[in-house]
Design brief:
Mean pLDDT: 79
Protein name: 2,5-diamino-6-ribosylamino-4(3H)-pyrimidinone 5'-phosphate reductase
InterPro entries: DHFR-like_dom_sf, RibDG_C, Riboflavin_Biosynth_HTPR
Strand order of the largest sheet: 1-16-15-14-13-17-11-18-23-22
Keywords: Riboflavin biosynthesis
Helix content: 10-25%
Bound molecules: nicotinamide-adenine-dinucleotide, ligand HJL
GO molecular function, one term: 5-amino-6-(5-phosphoribosylamino)uracil reductase activity
EC number: 1.1.1.302
Radius of gyration: 28 Å
Strand content: 15-25%
């Protein structure tokens, strides 16, 4: 421990440790970060989205890239808004390849909707929090929402790696009004065009494309933007069709089908049409697409689809075969593959209210020096969190478990001590449906696992759940907080970095030679982390409940289980406290306390940091 500074001379310093790992992200974005054995002042906090983009180095076979958690989106999902989730490999399957009803031939679908389209359209419409997705995901989903956005300008970086496009909501712009009336063909009446005044919605976003070894796209509101649209998504879908949807119409047109036949076939798959934003599609929209194609192909005779015919006065109707109408193929939207399977460990999103948590959750729009810290754990009636040291003990019922995963979705990082890693081999990801890897985009809702392991005790290995989870695209790889004395061999370092994780070296200690929590939190803040949920274990929690640290803790959410684990159990308890006269006093009294029953558990929520210390919102 020769290069450990004393308390007086030290300032919180966190460095990535190692010997020049080949991580392209670190080379590109964190140029200047201490990648090496020397210690260095923590870098100023980077843009949180870029930070995630840059340090997550998935192995080459991965196609997903991290996406920042959107707490408000979790809330949206909680409210039960349109949710249809896809398989874990989000780009792996399309939901619209074919339809199959019992006893009938498979039918080719008119749609090729990517998984979870309805939900993802909504995410890209609301842009409540910054979202980071892979370029592939962007190119797949953006055409289905481009009806909402009008590009204002583009900035490109000098090196050309990074392009920023600024968009405004379509309703901000007035519709074009020509001063002169156009000459019209003989006998044709001028078309009635509704003119929109503009300025109706002040929602603006920027889309930052970073093209490098792992290309990412970050979508976020611009500073001058309103916080919500002044209208819903249906309103825009009514005003303008998106190009993803119209591409389906163009594809059918290019096969020489009649617009009315295409329109009829679209209407036979109302769920997919709706999902793609086509609720207000008209036959005229299809005719316009078809007309464009016919300019280049004037000699083609348009035909109805197989099994359909054009009947004068009736339009497109299904044709009856020799054996009668029973043989006519009836697509069955309920049996369509539009409800694809999810990873088997997916947890359903809570269908009960979690409003009682809101007052205790981080507000990411607050500008603060250190992250919001939430302590969250499950305890027995006798304040034990496990039956024996190193023994995982289930205390949360199913509802409380969902709540814990919801809490994970609302924090940028989850922190635990190495004792818990060794005991539980935890995944530390969010497994709620809608999270990245569980039907959501990229690493949406996935927090960054952080392990406090000053001496490097964790024998980190590809079979650890945290690394497996990262490889499977179901969570982020961990950051391991170590002290200067930790022996980290280069292979271990390279392996962790290869998974997208890292080591953070902290060189500040308190008088008991424990790492100073302020330094840990400052290091996380400098890496763009705005909120941390600390889950345990007993050593970590008990220490943080001491007066020395209560200024750093915002809230506490304890799941209380109706059981006594007994004296051999592992307790969470701060040090005893004496008052000014030397009489025993309560060690800590959380404020603004609520108790909410949840299944077999009761959830205690409270604030810890003294009122005057709570940071002001700058939103
Ligand atoms: N019920 C729950 O909610 C819950 C949650 C988490 C863990 N657990 C249980 O808790 C038990 C593990 O608790 P624990 O106390 O053994 O482990 P822990 O997870 O608290 O880790 C303790 C270790 O972290 C490191 N550490 C923590 N703070 C440090 C600091 N300031 N400076 C330097 N090093 C520091 C040290 O190496 C220490 O030995 C397990 O049985 C686990 O199942 C229960
Ligand atoms: N909320 C809660 N209720 C419990 O009953 C219990 N045993 C834990 N324990 C927390 C501990 O940190 C575990 O290690 C992780 O909860 C495991 O995390 P994963 O599920 O593997 O992601 N937490």
């Amino acid at each position: 421990m020769d290069h450990v500074p004393s308390r007086a001379d030290s300032s919180a310093s966190a460095n990535t440790v190692g010997s020049g790992s080949p991580s392209p992200h670190n080379e590109d974005e964190h140029a200047g970060d201490a990648v090496g054995t020397g210690d260095k002042e923590a870098q100023p906090a980077p843009d949180i989205m870029r930070e995630d983009a840059m340090d997550e180095d998935p192995p080459p076979e991965l196609v997903t890239t991290p996406m920042n958690l959107s707490g408000a989106l979790a809330k949206q999902a909680q409210q039960g808004e349109a949710r249809g989730f896809g398989p874990p490999g989000i780009m792996a399957e399309s939901s619209g390849a074919e339809l199959r009803a019992p006893g009938v031939q498979p039918v080719q679908s008119m749609f090729n909707n990517p998984p979870n389209l309805a939900r993802i359209r909504r995410v890209l419409f609301e842009c409540k929090d910054p979202i980071e997705i892979s370029l592939e995901e962007f190119e797949t989903y953006w055409p289905f929402i481009d009806n909402v956005w009008v590009k204002q300008r583009t900035n490109a970086s000098k090196e050309g790696h990074c392009t920023t496009d600024y968009y405004m909501c379509r309703l901000r712009r007035p519709t074009h009004r020509t001063s002169e009336t156009r000459p019209l063909p003989e006998g044709k009446r001028p078309r009635k065009k509704r003119v929109r005044e503009g300025g109706l919605c002040n929602f603006q976003i920027k889309v930052v494309r970073f093209e490098g070894a792992y290309s990412t796209v970050t979508i976020s509101r611009t500073p001058g933007s309103g916080s919500i649209h002044s209208h819903d998504l249906d309103y825009i879908d009514r005003v303008k069709r998106n190009s993803g949807l119209m591409e389906f119409a163009r594809r059918e047109s290019a096969m020489g089908y009649l617009p009315s036949s295409i329109y009829t076939k679209f209407q036979e798959e109302p769920e997919k049409l709706d999902e793609a934003g086509g609720r207000f599609l008209t036959v005229t929209d299809v005719r316009n697409v078809s007309a464009k194609w016919r300019i280049q192909n004037p000699d083609v005779t348009l035909v109805p689809h197989d099994g359909y015919e054009l009947v004068k006065g009736h339009g497109i109707v299904k044709s009856h075969s020799a054996n009668g109408p029973s043989e006519v193929v009836q697509p069955h939207p309920v049996l369509a593959t539009s409800s694809p399977h999810l990873a088997p460990d997916t947890l359903s999103f809570p269908n009960f209210s979690l409003d009682f948590l809101q007052a205790y959750l981080p507000n990411h729009s607050q500008r603060r020096e250190l992250p919001h810290v939430t302590l969250s754990y499950a305890s027995s009636m006798d304040s034990k969190i496990s039956l024996r040291p190193g023994m995982q003990t289930v205390l949360s019922g199913p509802e409380a478990k969902l709540m814990t995963h919801y809490l994970r979705s609302r924090h940028d990082a989850i922190l635990i001590g190495v004792g818990t890693v060794l005991a539980d081999n935890p995944g530390l990801n969010c497994r709620l449906e809608g999270a990245g890897g569980f039907g959501g985009l990229g690493r949406m809702w996935q927090p960054r696992p952080v392990v406090i392991d000053p001496m490097g005790r964790w024998p980190i290995h590809p079979d650890c759940r945290m690394l497996r989870t990262a490889v499977e695209g179901k969570g982020k790889a961990p950051w391991v907080v170590v002290s200067p004395g930790a022996q980290i061999n280069p292979q271990r370092l390279m392996m962790l970095k290869g998974y997208g994780g890292d080591f953070l070296r902290i060189v500040e200690y308190n008088q008991n030679w424990r790492l100073r929590w302020e330094a840990v939190l400052r290091a996380l803040a400098s890496e763009g982390i705005k909120s941390v949920m600390i889950e345990g274990g007993a050593t970590v929690l008990s220490e943080l409940l001491n007066p020395e640290y209560t200024n750093f803790i915002d809230s506490i959410i304890v799941t209380v289980a109706p059981t006594y684990l007994g004296r051999g159990g592992v307790s969470v308890s701060p040090d005893s406290k004496l008052d000014q006269e030397g009489k025993p006093n309560a060690a800590l009294n959380p404020r603004d306390v609520t108790w909410t029953p949840l299944g077999q558990n009761v959830i205690m929520c409270g604030n810890i940091r003294p009122q005057a210390e709570r940071p002001q919102s700058h939103s």
